[in-house]
Amino acid sequence: MKAIGLMIFDFDGTLVNTGKDLVNSVNHTLGKLSLPVLPGEKIISFVGDGVQKLMERSLGSFYPEYFDEAMQIFDSYYTEHLLDETKVYPGVEEVLRSFHNKRKVILTNKLYSFTVAIADALKLTNYFDEIIGADSRPYHKPDRRLVDPLLDSYGVPSEQTVVVGDGINDVLLAKNAGLISCAFLNGLGSRGELLFLQPDFVCESLPEMMDFFC
């Protein structure tokens, strides 16, 4: 088992399954603009780089003409509906309780306000020392400048810090910063893309992490 002191968790697709609410909010936005809606799996493939990229990709050839209006519609709708279908993944709280003595941070490309609203409602916030959203810092994953201050702040060396996530940005962040990568293969991200990056650890469910780290 690998000794760790700091755990950096992704949010969407790792701790919580936000997929249905994101799909519904994007398609609501497209419908309000009288644009063609998209298959859910297509929208899910756009997740991971923040809401602006999600909307840009979803608009496709209608970007940037409709972008500003689309962002306003999405923001308003998602604010009201971000908990309609969103649930904590099985085993997440078991994992967080198991690692109660480790420093834990949520690091996401999701906006801070959305992240906190969901984490609060699903009673996850108190498990974490800090929540960092897309608008919390001038950098986004996989930029290593996001994590260097965390290592200093918590006094944990890179070789004892793990990044846990379902997206390629999580694995790339770990590799860019010399951290341990742990890929969750059953989130919103592409299993094939994750495995191609050869993360240090992979898990089908988060409780498997309890066999990897101590």
What can you see in these coordinates?
It is an enzyme of class 3 (hydrolase). GO terms for molecular function: phosphoglycolate phosphatase activity. Belongs to the HAD-like hydrolase superfamily. CbbY/CbbZ/Gph/YieH family. It comes from Syntrophus gentianae. With 214 residues, the protein is α/β, with parallel strands linked by helices. It folds into two domains: 6-17 and 86-211, Rossmann fold (3-Layer(aba) Sandwich); 19-81, DNA polymerase, domain 1 (Orthogonal Bundle). Helices cover 39% and strands 14% of the residues. It has nine helices and eight strands. The strands form two sheets. A six-stranded parallel sheet has the order 5-4-1-6-7-8, sandwiched between helices. It has a two-stranded antiparallel sheet with strand order 2-3. Strand 4, helix 6 (112-121) and strand 5 form a beta-alpha-beta unit. Helix 1 (19-32) crosses helix 4.
CATH fold-level topology of the largest domain: Rossmann fold
Give the fraction of residues assigned to helices.
Answer: 25-40%
Low-confidence stretches: none
Tally of structural domains: 2
Q: Label the structural class.
A: alpha/beta
CATH class of the largest domain: Alpha Beta
Q: What strand line-up does the widest sheet have?
A: 5-4-1-6-7-8
Q: The biggest beta sheet, please?
A: 6 strands, parallel
The dominant shape is globular
Give me the count of strands: 8
Name of the CATH superfamily of the largest domain: HAD superfamily/HAD-like
Radius of gyration: 17 Å
Q: What is the second-level CATH architecture of the largest domain?
A: 3-Layer(aba) Sandwich
Distance between the termini: 6 Å
- Sheet-strand content, in percent, reads 5-15%
GO biological process, one term: DNA repair
Protein name: phosphoglycolate phosphatase
Family: Belongs to the HAD-like hydrolase superfamily. CbbY/CbbZ/Gph/YieH family.
Pfam families: HAD_2
